Amino acid sequence: MQKSILALFITLLSNTAFGILPNGINISTEKKLKVALRAVGHELLLCQGDKSSVVLPIIQDSNVFRVSLSNHIAFNPDDLITITNQVLTEYGIHKNYLVEVIHCDSKDITHSFIGSTLYSDLEAPCIDRRIDLGCYEILWSDITDQSNNNKSLNNENEYRYAIIGLLMICLGCILFIFSRLKRKIELKQSPINILQLADATIDEKSMTISSGKNMIKLSHKEYELFILLFNNENKIVSRKEILMKVWDDEGDYVGRTLDVFISRLRKKLQSISAIQIDNVRGVGYKMVVNIK
Predict the structure, then answer these.
(1) Residue 129: its pLDDT value, please?
(2) What percentage of the chain has pLDDT greater than the value 90?
C-alpha cells in the first residue's frame, strides 16, 4: 500500500514539476497549437467545399507556424478570420496573433490581419475582398505581449511550486500515519496474547508481566521494546532497528534515551531470572531467554 501511494505521488510530482520545459515553453500549448492550426486549414478547405485537398505538416520557426495546403484555394478573408479565432478558442489557446497569407510563388503578402482570443475589439481590413484561386501559405505568429507571457508563466510556475510543496507535505503526513497504523496493527495481530515464560506470564492486553505474587506493569513504549526484543530472542537487534520500530526514529528520542528505557526494563525484570537483556556494544541489544 505504501509503495502504491509513493508511486502515485511520484507520478503527480513528475507531471506537475516537468510540465514546463526549462526555457519556459509549455509543451502542451505548443502541440495543441499545431493541431489547432491543422484544424484551421481543414475547416477553411471545407468552407470552400473542398473535401479532397489536405493540410500539409505544420512547419514551425520559433514563434511562427506555417500552414500549407496541397492544392490551390480561393477564399474570403472573413472566413479565415472567423475560423482561426473559433478554433483557437476551442483549443484553449489564449493569444494575440498575426496571420499573413503568402503567395507561394511571388512570396507577396496577399492578406494579413491581427486576431486575438484575449480581446474582442480587434478589426481586420479588407474582409470582403475575396482572394483569387492560387497557391497560398498561411503564416501564424504569436504577438502576445512578452511581459504578459512572462507574468503568466511566473504565475503558473508559482502555482506549480505551491502544488508540489503541498503534495510533499501530504505525502509525508500519509507515510507517517501509515507507519503508525502499521505498527499498531502488527502489535494487535501479534500471535502472543497470553505468553507463559518459565514462571512468568505476559499479558499483551494489560501490558503486564506476572511472576509469582509480583505483577510488573510496563508502559506502552516499554512493552513495545520488550516484545521487539522477545520476538528476536537470542538475536541481536540493532539500535537503528529499535529506534525505527519503537519510536519511528523520532528526533526527540536520540542519544541515551534508548539506554534509559533498557535500564528501566532491566530493573523491572530483575525478579525474572529467565530473562536477561544484554548490551552488544556498538551494535544493539539482545534478549537472552533461559528456560530450564
Answers:
(1) 81
(2) 28
